[in-house]
Records
---
Amino acid sequence: MTKKIENNKISVKTLSVIPLGIAYLISIPIQAYVLKFIGFNNQYLIIVGFHLICSFILFLIFTGTLIIEIKKEKKLIKVEWDKKPLLTKTENQVISISEIENWKLQTGRGTDKLKIFLKNNKVLKIDFNNMSDFGQNSKKKDLLTSYLTSEKINSI
């Protein structure tokens, strides 16, 4: 049973997965160099603590909050950043339902990715972060995909 969709604002937690992974891999040798320079060579608890703090900071830098507003009577989807993560290609935009050709949903453990293909050959990619919201993003993703389905936009 799907919910009736009126005008909804959906606040979605996002995660830039690939830039986060690259930054994490680059940060490991940098952390080792900093700890060696400071003099923490064999103090493993300090090394692990420092690594966890750096990983948490990277996670905060590459996560964001995206506000998706569905305007049913105007047949518009408004996408606007509340907190934009580092290195994301998604910009603030207003999309008419008539501009959408189709959409694709890819599910995963850390993130679910929704790709909305527009008729002008552009793609809107939304990475739903499932790691920090304990399942809330899944409900928001379902609300957005059910709206797209109700507007007779096909999934591929």
---
Amino acid sequence: MSLILELEVDSTPYAETTLFREGVWVGDGPMESITIRLDGREPGHGFGISELVTIVVSVGAGAASNLVADAVRAAAGRIIRSVRGRRSVGDGSREGLEDVIEAERDPDPDDGTPGQE
């Protein structure tokens, strides 16, 4: 399963992780079934203090959402201010990431518009 997420992260040039240097992050140990690929970058809102990063998260069937959230945080290596999926939005906390990941993994086919009920 692949999830597409947009993260608003702190713009911290000295905190370049493997994801930002090489365009891909591959989990190991308990996260070995998770791979994250950088799909796009652009300046964020404000005065250069953040950037918007689009990532594609490939997740093995058995990986729990909290583990996927931890992998996203490890791959980003920066403060995550917010996260947006096709179906929901959340803050950058672990719980906010988990909620968005759960919504993206939900097999219920809806129109995919965040915030509409």
---
Amino acid sequence: MAIIDTIRDLPGPPFEAFRYPHEYAIDLTVERAIVPEKHVDAGREEVRAGLRPGSKRGPETRASLRRALRRWCEAEEEDLDAVYTTLADKYLALHSITKP
């Protein structure tokens, strides 16, 4: 039982205040397919349109998801800040990160 008790008592990663709520929310959208694909595609195209012509670099995933999340919130008439906070709180819960 000592091994099981040790594993049970392992703390989650430390809370990083500078990442809350935006970065934690985007972490969750990277891990799981939460944002509908049509908004992800539109966000990717928006980022791609901002790249220099002839750029061989593709759109960055996190930037695309930020734009996709904004588009989805606009389409559903949801408060973007509330959605970011809800996603971040879910991420913290799933990863056993304690917010002070």
